[in-house]
Design brief:
- It contains 4 helices and 2 strands; from the N terminus they run ααββαα.
- The longest helix is centred in the first third of the chain and has 20 residues, at 7-26.
- The chain has helices at residues 7-26, 30-34, 44-54, 58-75; strands at residues 36-39, 42-43.
- Strand 1 (36-39) and strand 2 (42-43) form a beta hairpin.
- It is mainly α.
- The chain has one domain.
- It has a two-stranded antiparallel ribbon.
Length: 82
């Protein structure tokens, strides 16, 4: 798959991946979500919560700024990518 080169393609890819994640999670029972052992004694639910909680705020803002800067360059026919 080629990397997305326009904002709409990137947003479409994010939506597709989000939909696939939701489908996967909805296929799990509450017991499966809460069963420990995914990573050490942690459950799927704990892993997801921790991952999402740790990837908000400044971390998200840094990535968003970098992605938007790259998309703006591409829109102008330039890119920082090799």
């Amino acid at each position: 798959m080629q990397p997305p080169n326009q904002k709409s393609q990137l947003l479409g890819l994010i939506q597709t991946e989000h939909t696939q994640l939701e489908a996967l999670l909805s296929s799990l029972s509450e017991e499966q979500l809460l069963r420990g052992g995914v990573t050490g004694s942690w459950s799927v639910k704990e892993e997801l919560y921790t991952h999402l909680a740790n990837n908000t705020g400044n971390h998200y803002a840094e990535h968003r700024q970098a992605i938007e800067a790259e998309l703006n360059l591409r829109d102008r026919g330039m890119s920082s990518s090799p």
